[in-house]
Amino acid sequence: MPCVKGRLPDEQYNKIQSNYTELVADIKYDPMGLARSLFKYHVFDDDDLEKIKREERHDEGCKSDAAAKLLDILLNCGSLAYDNFIKALDDNKYYNALFRLEPGKI
Questions:
Q1: Cα–Cα–Cα angle for 92, 15, 49, rounded to 5 degrees
Q2: What are the residue boundaries of the CARD domain, all occurrences included (predicted)?
Q3: Residue 58 confidence (pLDDT)
Q4: What is the pTM of this model?
Q5: Could you tell me if 30 and 89 are in contact, meaning their C-beta atoms sit under 8 angstroms apart?
Q6: Angle at 32 between CA 28 and CA 36, to 5 degrees
Q7: What region, left, alpha or beta, does residue 42 occupy, with left being phi > 0 and alpha being psi -120 to 50 degrees?
Q8: Environment class of 73 (CB within 10 Å of its CB; exposed 0-12, middle 13-18, buried 19+)
């Protein structure tokens, strides 16, 4: 199943947008681990992984920048991306982020 591109549906896009700063703080500890999970779920492709890795390794970059890049890419990964993002958050034990987006799932 190939990666699909395109903006998330409005409701999902708005959930991420309204929690953006908090989500960056929640996922900054291992954005590449989360990105690999999104790759496993066919949300991200090799190019997306490379963009996040580059941001993390950039001289002035940091894990927060990589986490922000991950969210920026995610916002344009199509209609199936959000549910797989929720699965990836759960897989990687990002329970605070999961609770922010889907309080009823915890």
A1: 45
A2: 8-91
A3: 74
A4: 0.92
A5: no
A6: 135
A7: left
A8: buried
Tens digits of pLDDT across the chain (106 residues): 556 689 999 999 999 999 999 999 999 999 999 999 999 999 999 999 999 999 988 756 689 999 999 999 999 999 999 999 999 999 999 999 999 999 987 6
Q: Residue 68: CB partners within 8 Å, gap ≥ 6?
A: 20, 24, 55
Q: Which amino acid is at 71?
A: L
Handedness of CA 106, 5, 16, 58 (dihedral sign): positive
Q: Which two tokens stand for residue 74?
A: 């995610």
Whether residue 89 contacts residue 15, with contact meaning beta carbons closer than 8 Å, is answered with no
Residues 49, 102: Cα–Cα separation, whole Å: 25
Do residues 40 and 79 make contact, with C-beta atoms less than 8 angstroms apart?
no
| Closest among 85, 78, 101 to 7, alpha carbons compared | 78
